[in-house]
Structure formats: C-alpha cells, structure tokens
Design a protein that fits this description.
Blueprint lengths: L2 E6 L2 E7 L9 E6 L12 H8 L7 E6 L3 E2 L9 E2 L5 H10 L13 H19 L6 E6 L1 H12 L6 E5 L6 H10 L5 E6 L7 H13 L4 E6 L7 H16 L2
Parallel strand pairs: 3-4, 3-7, 7-8, 8-9, 9-10
Antiparallel strand pairs: 1-2, 2-4, 5-6
Amino acid sequence: MPLTTKTIGPLTCQIYDELPPGQSPKIISIVSHGFGAPGDDLVPFGPEILGRTPALAEQVRFIFPAAPLSLIEMGIPGGRAWWMLDIAELNASITSGKIRDQRDKTPDGFLEAAQQFREFVDELQAESGLPLSQIVLAGFSQGSIISTEVALSLPQPPAALVLWSSTLLCEQRWTSMAAKSEKFPIQQSHGKQDPILPFAGAIWLKDMFEQNQFTVDFSEFMGPHTIPEIALDKFGTLLTDLTSTD
C-alpha cells in the first residue's frame, strides 16, 4: 500500500496516493480524524475512494494528520485529540438527552490547535507548490470543527470543505469570518440520531454558512455519530468534479 509517514509543520501525517513516481497531484485532500481516534483512523478512506473512482488515482493525494494531543493518560492508548473535551459533561448530556448548545463556546486549547493546523497547511502548501484552491479540507467530528476554523481563516479559499458530523462553535467568531471569507463549496453530513454532536448543531452550522452566501450540500441520514455511505459517495463525486476543472 502506497502509504508513508511524514512530519509536516507541527503535525505527523500519513500520506496515501497512487500517483506515478514524481507526478504531482491535482488535488490534495486533508482528512482529519475525531476525538479519541488514532491518527491513522481515516486512512482507509484513501484506497476506498480511489477504488470506487479509479480515474482519481493519478489526480489526488490524501493526507491524514494526527491530532497533537495524546490521550494515553485518559486510558485511550493511541487515541489523539485536537483539544480536550469535558467527558463528564458530554456523558451527562447523552444520559439526559439534553442538547448541548455549544454555539457560544470556544473550548480551551481550540484556537491553539487551529494555529498548529494552520501552520501544517501553510507548510504543506509550500512543500507541494499547490495553491489553496487545490487543497480540500475534510474531517470527522472534532476534525471537522478544526477544519472549519482553519478554512475560514485562510488567506484564499480552499477547494472545498467537507464536514462529517460537525457542529457550530464560537458562533460570533465564525459568522464574522464567514462574512469576510471568499466563498467555497461545502459538503456536510449528519445523523439524525447523533448523541455526541446532536443534529440541531449541524443545522445551526449549515444555516450560518448559508446566511453568509456559502453553498452547502447537506446530507441527513438516520443514524448515529458516523460517516455514512452517501457522504463517501459525495466526497468521491466532489473530488472528481474538482479534478475535472481546469
């Protein structure tokens, strides 16, 4: 399997592609994992997407950064986090069924993690020579939230933003950033039975983007906190569309 490990800026990454030696990709897709997962959690998406759409094999490189924080002290060997969560609060919310409204929250460590992610993107862009318009930011759960923050902070728009099981945080900050940002396409999917990041938070996020003139391709599904088949299908279609344009 054409998989390599490399440190890019402050983050250790897994890189997957099937490009001929020496050939540059047309699109780089950064795919970021969620809280508690190992850094290589979403690596199987690389061969999965390329297997479904072989024409992408000579076009796309996937990069899977590992979040900076280790969770070994929480009893999760190999688990990583972009920032720490209040697990007791999360469990209490799940048990009670009460929706956690995090719209006014900027969690401790979140902006620091976003700064590290931004440094990683800047270094990746410098190394690859590709403009931001050829870089896709995708992520699941916590990885999607950090991707949103960074996408809105970039000096030029990315090729696209792909959000699996995401939510709206720091609403005033993101609304201000979204109003000033050049627009880019967004894909979003969310389970209507998600106990971790409830469906309402996904709708708040979608509405925030749409109110600021972003186009959001939103897929809801009956299911929990996960990435459904329709999201992978649409991700492959997005990459195909992006590599088909001049």
